[in-house]
Design brief:
The chain is α+β, with helices and mostly antiparallel strands and 329 residues long. The chain has helices spanning 10-20, 70-78, 91-96, 107-111, 171-174, 203-224, 227-230, 240-256, 270-289, 293-318, 323-327; strands spanning 27-32, 38-43, 46-51, 54-60, 80-84, 115-116, 125-126, 131-143, 146-158, 177-179, 185-187. Helices cover 39% and strands 20% of the residues. The strands form three sheets. A seven-stranded antiparallel beta sheet has the order 2-1-5-8-9-4-3, with helices on one face. Strands 6-7 form a two-stranded antiparallel sheet. The chain has a two-stranded antiparallel ribbon with strand order 10-11. 27% of the residues are buried.
């Protein structure tokens, strides 16, 4: 099929373009008007341009009638903006901010977002975003009906729980949401590493990485338990401390090689394990924060899931490595 862009009207061409160039990162852009009204809007024509100085671009189109959008008007008036990245959990609120509200209406309030004071620019960042880039406008380039707002990043905010050990952002922890066409979005479900020599990671290396991640998650989970948690019963079941001990024993089985002989359950892919850990981790944090009888049930389930994952990984690792070798990694 051959498409001549000049044969399509603006709406049809837009729909085709956004269905072709996928997935796209989303710049959840916060600005402030000269009258002090806060504005938030998502733009998926967004990309990094340079690392030194760190520079990004956000392409802002016009309203259907041809008037400038609030985001562009605010950026040009104040020469400042903040790009907030969108994680999977913020998708619904992000879409709410795409509504074309009047200039006097703040999308922060409409979408239930929390503005947080920025360090170097006037527009606030979004508290619900794990990564925020404070930007100062360098220039606006006119391309067709859009204004390409190029900004130098003058401050970077990173939430600790999305950082990898080397200080970079871990995509698995960030859970970025990509824009597709129409109302479709792309959550992160799998990461494939391809080395410069064209090789791909092996199943063994993936298992080891997952094992290390799980051990870190276990330590973090145990660290959140206080004495008051360990001393209380989880519903009608055993002590929470006993469940934590169950988790530790599942880990220790690898050291002694005495785990029961059970095959790997193929339904538990690395992606599913990571998804479960993230979900139960959120439930655990909620339970630890408000330790009510109802929350204890969530706590118990979270720990049991963790122990089950430990056992599943143990079964898989034993197929590739000697127990002592794994324990020393």
């Amino acid at each position: 099929m051959l498409v001549d862009p000049s044969s399509l009207d603006a709406k049809a061409l837009y729909k085709l373009m956004i269905s072709i160039i996928v997935p796209r990162p989303i710049a959840w852009t916060s600005t402030i008007s000269i009258d002090g009204v806060l504005n938030v809007a998502p733009f998926s024509y967004f990309q990094a341009l340079s690392s030194k100085p760190p520079t990004v671009m956000v392409s802002v189109g016009r309203r259907r009638g041809g008037a400038a959008k609030d985001t562009r008007s605010n950026i040009e008036a104040t020469r400042e903006f903040v790009v907030n990245l969108v994680s999977e959990g913020s998708g619904v609120r992000m879409v709410r901010t795409s509504v074309d509200y009047p200039p006097e209406v703040s999308e922060f309030a409409e979408a239930g977002l929390t503005p947080v004071r920025s360090e170097k620019v006037r527009p606030p960042r979004i508290a619900e975003s794990a990564v925020s880039l404070e930007c100062r406008l360098d220039r606006v380039l006119e391309v067709g009906t859009s204004g390409i707002c190029i900004g130098e990043v003058v401050a970077i905010h990173l939430r600790d729980d999305v950082l990898a050990a080397d200080g970079t952002v871990d995509p698995w922890r960030l859970r970025p949401l990509g824009r597709l066409g129409g109302s479709a979005y792309a959550p992160l479900r799998e990461v494939v590493e391809i080395t410069t020599d064209g090789g791909a990671r092996t199943a063994e290396s993936d298992l080891l990485d997952l094992w290390r991640d799980l051990r870190r998650a276990t330590v973090a989970l145990a660290g959140r338990l206080g004495p008051e948690h360990l001393a209380q019963r989880a519903g009608d079941g055993p002590l929470v401390g006993s469940l934590l001990l169950h988790l530790a024993q599942a880990t220790a089985r690898l050291a002694g090689g005495a785990a029961e002989d059970r095959p790997w359950d193929s339904r538990w892919t690395p992606e599913r394990v990571r998804d479960e850990l993230e979900r139960t981790g959120r439930e655990f944090e909620e339970a630890a924060r408000v330790f009510t009888p109802d929350a204890r049930g969530k706590l118990r389930v979270a720990i049991r899931h963790e122990a089950w994952h430990q056992g599943q990984l143990a079964a898989a690792l034993r197929a590739h490595f000697a127990p002592g070798e794994v324990w020393g990694l």
